[in-house]
Amino acid sequence: MEQTQPAPSVSIVDVSPRDGLQNEKVPVHTQDKLKLINELVSLGVRRIEAVSFVNPKKVPQMADAEAVMAGVPRDAGASYIGLVLNTRGAVRAVDAGVDEMNYVLPVTDAFAKANQNTTVAAALDSLEEVSSIAAAASIPLTVTAAVAFGCPYQGDVPGEQALSVVGSALQRAALAEVALADTIGCAVPWQVGEVFAALRAETDLQLRAHLHETRHTALANTYAAMAAGVTVFDSAVGGLGGCPFAPGAAGNVSTEDLAWMLGRAGFDTSIDPARATELGRWICAKVETAPRSGLAGAGVFPQRV
């Protein structure tokens, strides 16, 4: 059966250097992080969440954020994202020279307390300040709504609750993009489609999905999100990832599995799944864990001749 080229275009944000590594216990040297970033650029990744500007005592793996940003290749056409939780992190991000900023906005008070020692209301107040800092530096700002589909402390998160918090963010900040995060990998496609469709009806901003593979629903959730108008997806090579403050949060959907699925559907992500698989093997070996992607076990299909 002849396939036609799907539309609209879909892009991948690789979060391996940040979300992929932040929860790993084996320290990764700055030079290895820079090698990972350089290899991602070589793979064709054009947006990379490279670092997070958080308390190094709480997330030791991210303690070298400034050193990483000082060493990234600046002439390769890639945009480097720094994740922030507060105004202190935003100032550090500007000083470090990030190209984009990603602010984490919890949608439950329980997760806000565990992840950022704050409340949803206070996090929204902080967002206004972060937005001003980003705007003054002409840095595009993304808001990622954490635990948008389920919280390890509250339990189920009604779609209305997540949408209410995101709606407040849209009113209070100058945003370039809005992301919903299935932080602990508990969402199912029907839920993802419904919430993203409701968000699409509320804003014309670019929508992004951050989906974890904890219960093996991430690729199905990707399909549902795409049908609802999402065009940008986070992933990590090897399926690495997790959150120190979200019990049970397994890895991200893997870059190789995501690029392979989209490629089989006719979408051009500019990312070679076979090379992404090998990069996943390399970084997983650095943190002494096995790659979690389907392609790492089964290989690319069809095989290259």
CATH fourth-tier homologous superfamily: Aldolase class I
Number of helices: 12
Main pleated sheet: 8 strands, parallel, barrel
CATH uppermost class:
Alpha Beta
Task: State the CATH topology.
Answer: TIM Barrel
Radius of gyration: 18 Å
**Helical fraction:** 40-55%
| CATH 2nd-level architecture | Alpha-Beta Barrel
Strand proportion: 15-25%
Q: What is the gist of this entry?
A:
41% of the residues lie in helices and 16% in strands. It has 305 residues and is α/β, with parallel strands linked by helices. The strands form two sheets. An eight-stranded parallel β-barrel has the order 1-2-3-4-5-8-9-10, surrounded by eight helices.
Protein model, in words:
The chain is an alpha/beta fold and 305 residues long. It has a single domain, classed as Alpha-Beta Barrel (TIM Barrel). It has twelve helices and ten strands. The strands form two sheets. It has an eight-stranded parallel barrel with strand order 1-2-3-4-5-8-9-10, surrounded by eight helices. It has a two-stranded antiparallel sheet with strand order 6-7. Strand 9, helix 9 and strand 10 form a beta-alpha-beta unit. The mean pLDDT is 95.
